[in-house]
Structures are given as structure tokens and as C-alpha cells.
Design brief:
about 220 residues, mainly alpha, 8 helices, about 80% helix, globular
Length: about 220
């Protein structure tokens, strides 16, 4: 029975990783094609649907960690996925005024390359039991450049959306109301930006530790 469950787990995770890999590959292809043919102003409108689908699929990774399907700690997975879901749905999708900003291109390219490498690595590992060294090296090395470009683009997009949040009052709840409750989406965004300050070195340090552990383990083997 345990063997059957293990096989089903591997089949599911392999299919999940390769399907999401295909989604991010499409996002990257469309981004580069649009940049070449139309310019950065049209990137978001071109990749919106596959981007929302590919990034939203990552929510399942939180569930994978909760139920023990994977060994990734929730403390590392939740902030990364949560911040990206906030950016794609709470910023890019919600505020059309920022959808033609040049930072969208650097954001999407950084995310896409990172995820193409990550999902292909885990997809190969689940399907064949291991991944080639070059793919493992890419998995634990590309973030050295792509994490700073991606995270700075995320911060830039949130910052650029602030005036439109304040002006529109979108997602804010004003008093008085029957719940006797108020919420200001603009100030929440400022709090999110503040969380990036301690969050960036923490996650970057975590990934550096994971890189060292993974590459040292490979050398010993």
C-alpha cells in the first residue's frame, strides 16, 4: 500500500511540476515575443491570463507543504508565494494604470526563468528520481541574480500602484458601516513594503543556505 501511495505521489508531483513549467514557459515566450514586436507597454496585456494561471497554481504548493506531500517548510514557501500572489492579483490585475510600466517586463522575465528552472528540476527529479548536475546547479544558482531583479521589480510595482490605491479607494472599507470596521488597502500596501525590508535578507540567506547544502551534498556523492 505504501508503495502505491508513493507512486501516486510521484506521478502527481511530476505532472504538477511539468504542467506549471509549461505555463511559465508560455509566459516567457510571449513576453520576449511581445518585447521584440510591440514593446514593453503590451507585455502585461499579452501574458495576463497565463501569468495569473501559472502563479495561482503555486497556491497548491502551500497545501503540499501543509499535508506533507513535500518537505519544503511552510515558513519559506508561504512568504514567497504569498507576495507573488499579492503582486499579480492585488497590484497588476487590480490596477490597470500600472500595467504598461517597464518594470513589468523585468518582473515577468525574472519570475519566468526562475520558475522554468525550478519546475523542470523538480519535475525531472520526481519523474526519474534525480536531476542532472547542471540542472541542480541552475536551480540553486540562478536566484543569485534573478531574486534581486525580481524582488526589486515587485517593490517597484507596488510603489507605483500606491497613488492609484489612494485615489480609487479600491478594496478599502470606510466607516461607518454595519460591521463597525475599517480597512485601508493603501496603508496595507505600505505595511507590505515594510515587510520586504526584513524579508529580503531572510529569504536570500535561506536560499544561500539551501544552495550550499545542495551543492556540497552533490560533491560528496
Amino acid at each position: 500500500m505504501a508503495g502505491v501511495l508513493s507512486l501516486l505521489r510521484r506521478l502527481y508531483l511530476s505532472a504538477y511540476n511539468w504542467i506549471v513549467f509549461a505555463g511559465w514557459f508560455q509566459v516567457l515566450f510571449l513576453t520576449l515575443k511581445t518585447l521584440k514586436e510591440s514593446g514593453y507597454e503590451h507585455v502585461y496585456s499579452t501574458v495576463e491570463k497565463p501569468l495569473l494561471l501559472a502563479q495561482s497554481a503555486a497556491f497548491l504548493e502551500i497545501l503540499h507543504g501543509i499535508i506533507g506531500l513535500v518537505r519544503s517548510p511552510i515558513t519559506a514557501t508561504l512568504p514567497q508565494i504569498g507576495s507573488r500572489l499579492y503582486v499579480v492579483w492585488g497590484i497588476l490585475y487590480s490596477f490597470p494604470e500600472v500595467q504598461k510600466h517597464p518594470l513589468i517586463s523585468s518582473l515577468v522575465i525574472s519570475w519566468s526563468i526562475t520558475e522554468i528552472v525550478r519546475y523542470s528540476f523538480f519535475g525531472t527529479k520526481e519523474a526519474f528520481g534525480s536531476a542532472p548536475y547542471w540542472l541542480l546547479w541552475l536551480r540553486y544558482s540562478t536566484f543569485l541574480v534573478l531574486y534581486p531583479t525580481g524582488i526589486s521589480s515587485e517593490i517597484g510595482m507596488i510603489y507605483n500602484a500606491l497613488p492609484f490605491m489612494k485615489e480609487s479607494g479600491m478594496y478599502s472599507v470606510r466607516m461607518p458601516n454595519k460591521w463597525n470596521f475599517s480597512f485601508d488597502y493603501f496603508y496595507m500596501a505600505i505595511v507590505v513594503l515594510a515587510i520586504y525590508v526584513p524579508g529580503i535578507p531572510h529569504l536570500y540567506g535561506y536560499m544561500l543556505g539551501q544552495r550550499k547544502k545542495a551543492l556540497m551534498k552533490t560533491k560528496k556523492e
